[in-house]
Amino acid sequence: MIDWGRVNELKNEIGEDDFGEIAEIFLEEVDEVIARLKSNPDPSQFEHDMHLLKGSASNLGFQSLSEICDQNERTAASGQGSQIQLDPVFTIYDQSKVEFLAKL
Known about the structure:
Oligomer: single chain
Helix content: over 70%
Number of domains: 1
Structural class: mainly alpha
Shape: elongated
Low-confidence stretches: none
Number of strands: 0
Organism: Aliiroseovarius halocynthiae
Radius of gyration: 14 Å
GO molecular function: protein kinase activity
Protein name: Hpt domain-containing protein
Domain HPt: 8-104
Keywords: Phosphoprotein, Two-component regulatory system
């Protein structure tokens, strides 16, 4: 679920202190997108939303989230945004966040 190698790589690149700040910003940004998708999903924005989530997830090592968002981004780009199931995205994010915060 979490690519701990990527997490450690990022910590080494930016330093332990800055890593905490980066992680906090990431979680806030992703929480905002997830909240909007839960309250007001707009299939016309799914490609953009999934791209944003994928990039953020990839940067911080949330591998499973990155993978499902990549798949959903491609689905939306092919004009099938209305076919995207958001619940798996929410579930994977919640599980990843719990694991990430528990092991930091």
